[in-house]
Design a protein that fits this description.
Layout: H1 6-19, H2 26-37, E1 42-43, H3 44-51, H4 59-72, E2 75-79, E3 85-89, H5 91-94, E4 106-110, E5 116-119, E6 140-144
Parallel strand pairs: 4-6
Antiparallel strand pairs: 1-3, 2-3, 4-5
Helix pairs in contact: 1-2, 2-4
Length: 151
């Protein structure tokens, strides 16, 4: 989970993208900054709403940028029980480290509101795969009621 402010997130997003030698665009920086500033995984609509304040990015561009961030390992996506895709800055990226190569951390999904929060501190088990197979990602989801819904 990130606690960066919006200006800090924009600077961090630009630095992360540039550090890895891939093409930086205003849209890519803005979307990654929104994910870095978030305290939970965001839907496409959530990102769009956050970007309405100061950025002119159309829906198609937003979808493409989110997919690009996932492909580059800067973000990951997951679908909740409600089948809505949510995006979050990859854990190592959010903490200023290297790009992820698939994410390996747990998530908490609220069964009431659908909120998804990364559990970066949870230790992930190493799960062996058959010989010749290549693991891309491991998904562990803890389900329950979030702090907002359990009040």
């Amino acid at each position: 989970m990130s606690t960066r402010s919006a200006p800090d997130s924009a600077a961090a997003a630009a630095a992360i993208i540039n550090k890895h030698g891939v093409r930086s665009t205003p849209a890519r920086v803005a979307v990654l900054a929104a994910l870095l500033a978030a305290h939970e995984a965001l839907t496409h609509h959530d990102v769009e709403e956050r970007l309405k304040r100061g950025h002119d990015i159309d829906r198609v561009t937003l979808y493409r940028v989110l997919e690009w961030l996932v492909e580059q390992g800067f973000a990951h996506k997951l679908a909740g029980e409600d089948r809505v895709r949510r995006f979050s800055a990859s854990g190592r990226v959010a903490r200023g480290g290297a790009q992820g190569s698939g994410h390996a951390h747990a998530h908490f999904e609220c069964v009431e509101c659908g909120r998804v929060v990364c559990l970066d501190e949870a230790r992930m088990p190493t799960i062996p795969v058959p010989h010749g197979f290549r693991r891309r990602e491991v998904e562990v989801t803890v389900k329950g009621c979030c702090d907002r819904c359990s009040r």
